[in-house]
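Running log. JK asked me to keep both predictions on one page so they can be read side by side. First protein, sequence followed by its tokens:
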Amino acid sequence: MDGRYRKNIRPGLQVEVVLKADQRSGTRTPGVVQSILTKSEFHPHGIKVRLEDGSVGRVAEILQDD
């Protein structure tokens, strides 16, 4: 599924995000979505989320879908 659309993301999903500090390198960080921070339905660089460990980044890929 596409991480650029808010409708595809919900708390509890396993995702890979690109943290602000990693935007240049594109390094992905895996984690579980705690909350969705982007209010719009679409963002070209990925929906911004907070992971359960507290880190914040944009969804690059959704790893697990129930």
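And the second, directly underneath as requested:
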Amino acid sequence: MHISTELYWLVLTLIMTALFWVPTIINRIAETGVLATLMPPQLQPKAQWAERLKRAHANAVENLVIFAPLALAIQITSASTTATVTACTVYFRGWCM
């Protein structure tokens, strides 16, 4: 089975989305300590970048609901075209900006 370029971009998007939370957790540990980090969050992060990254993660998760089924459908049906490859590339690179 040939792996489509769209599936490649989907996998990278999933990895990136999964890793978004790591700096946020490190920031929370730095701000509140390890034990407080393990409790449900009571406060928003003090660092603006951490709050922005938290929102970006939530946005990425919400968008996966649309992006993942489409990329998987392209893989299953072998419907890859230049347009679908371009769309998936633009989708991923938009997150990296």
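Observation for JK regarding the second prediction: The chain has one domain: 5-38+47-95.
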